[in-house]
Structures are given as C-alpha cells and as structure tokens.
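Hypothesis: this fold can be encoded by more than one sequence.
Test: take the structure tokens below, design a sequence, compare later.
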C-alpha cells in the first residue's frame, strides 16, 4: 500500500529525496518550488517509509502524512447563486488544494429551498466520480437536516459543513459533520476560522483513509500512479491538453482529460512491462465531466493478479 506524504525542505539536495522515492518504487505527484524551499507530494510504499523519514531528518526537512494527496474532492454548494456560494466555498476548495487534493466546485441546478431542493442523476454520477465530497450548507439547523436528501444516494463519503452544532445522529448519511462553517461575508483569516478549515481537512482525510482501508482488503491490480505514468508516456497528445492537470489521480483510477471517442482506444492499448494492456485490467468509460476519459482499475479478485 502506498502512503501519501508531503516533504517540505530546502531546495538544496532535494534530488536525493526524488531519487530515493523512485528507488523505493514510489511516485512524485507534485513539486512546488518557492525560492529556496520545495514542497513534494509523494506516494511511497508503507514498509519503506522509515527510509524516507531518515533522509528527511538528515536534510533538515519535514515529512508529514498527507492523506489528501493523489485524490479528487468535490466541493458542492446548493446553487451557484450569491447566497449559496459565499467566500466559505472558495476557502474550503483552496484549503483542500493546499493539502494535496484536486478539488472541483459544483453548484446544483435545483438546490434552492429547504423543502424543494433536489439533485439529479447527472449531478449524482458526477460527484460519485470523486473520492469524497464536501457539502456546504448555511446557518439554519433545520435546513441542514432536511437537505440530507441531496447526498443520501452518494457512493462516496460525504463531509457536511454548516454553522450550528448538529448531532451526528440527525445526519445518518453523512460521514462527518463540521460546524462553525456557515455563510460569512469575508475570507477566512482568524485563527478560529483557519481552525475550522483544518477540521474539514482532517474529516476528509479520515474519509479517504476509510476508503483506502476498504481498497486494501481487495487490492487493485496495479496502482493509479503507475497507470498515470504509462498513459503520459504512451499517449503523447495528453501534453497538449488545455487542462492545468491533464491527468487527475483517484484512489481507484485516473481521469484522462482528453475526448473519450477520439482517445479511448489509445488509452485501452496502453501496455505495461508485464505485457498487460490497460483495457484488460481496468474499465475505460466516458466521464460525466466534459467528455473526459474515466479509468477505473479492477481489483485483484476480478483479474486474479497484482503487479
């Protein structure tokens, strides 16, 4: 099982970290350089984590667990209208990105009204393509409880946020509820507001860890980062994608941001060193997001092997 971690340290000799991760069979997901400091989002085998910790200590760097690395999270608001899309939604999406997640913001078409709020099949399927979802509600307890119908049929864990305190028993379909995040007319700056954002990150991290634990019981045939590297090498047109992140990682696959009809055969034909083609170990289907390609890796119980 690959462990998601974040290395923060000096730019000097950071290539030693990169080389060690590659030698251990891990992956560098993201590299951010700010003058003399570097931040690396890494996936490394759990059994080899001690070796990376030793090198980080030697280089006077910091290595912390980053459960959001290599995941996609949907940030959902009832509508895109101004009274449902306050600064809070942007703060949450940005804060999740800072901790390693790829976030997509979604406003529902019919989310207005406590009694008449709805979510359609397309929106449900789109949210379910993510690894987790954060539903952002307002300051009224009764409204938060009655709008559970919006996420009742989600197959991914849902973290609900709102202003008042709400007993978890009143939200049986939510993975967790985080309070003190209501509608505010300013960006989060105070320590208490940043603390609330930290609690959301922690809740989403726990939800993702639960998904990882479920996947580990029936491991995937191969890891999503390996598929990502193979697609990048064998489908060169991915470099011409206008998206800032042409290949998005999920816990159980990847999203390739190329037109489905034009590139589905090329993606299915991606071949690994073991002689196995991607179409043999994964389901390649159209995504609900802009006709992209969605790849879902089959578990070992279906293919009979792991590599």
């Amino acid at each position: 099982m690959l462990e998601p971690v974040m290395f923060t340290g000096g730019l000097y000799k950071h290539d030693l970290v990169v080389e060690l991760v590659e030698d251990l069979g891990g992956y560098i997901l993201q590299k951010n350089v700010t003058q003399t400091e570097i931040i690396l989002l890494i996936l490394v085998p759990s059994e080899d984590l001690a070796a990376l910790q030793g090198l980080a200590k030697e280089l006077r760097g910091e290595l912390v667990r980053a459960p959001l690395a290599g995941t996609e999270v949907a940030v959902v608001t009832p509508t895109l209208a101004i009274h449902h899309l306050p600064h809070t939604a942007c703060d949450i999406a940005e804060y999740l990105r800072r901790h390693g997640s790829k976030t997509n913001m979604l406003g529902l078409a019919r989310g207005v009204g406590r009694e008449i709020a709805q979510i359609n099949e397309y929106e449900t399927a789109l949210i379910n393509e993510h690894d987790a979802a954060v539903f952002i509600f307002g300051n009224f307890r009764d409204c938060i409880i009655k709008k559970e119908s919006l996420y009742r049929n989600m197959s991914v864990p849902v973290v609900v946020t709102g202003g008042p305190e709400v007993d978890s028993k009143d939200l049986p379909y939510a993975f967790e509820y985080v309070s003190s995040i209501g509608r505010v007319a300013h960006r989060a700056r105070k320590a208490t507001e940043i603390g609330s954002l930290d609690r959301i990150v922690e809740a989403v991290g726990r939800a993702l860890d639960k998904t990882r634990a479920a996947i580990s019981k029936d491991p995937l045939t191969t890891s999503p980062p390996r598929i990502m590297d193979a697609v990048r090498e064998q489908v060169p047109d991915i470099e011409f994608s206008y998206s800032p992140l042409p290949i998005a990682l999920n816990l159980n696959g990847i999203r390739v941001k190329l037109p489905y009809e034009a590139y589905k055969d090329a993606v299915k034909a991606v071949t690994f060193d073991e002689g196995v083609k991607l179409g043999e170990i994964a389901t390649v289907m159209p995504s609900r997001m802009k006709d992209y390609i969605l790849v879902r890796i089959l578990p070992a119980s279906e293919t009979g092997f792991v590599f």
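The radius of gyration is 20 Å. Residues 73 and 187 are 21 Å apart (CA to CA).
Hypothesis status: open.
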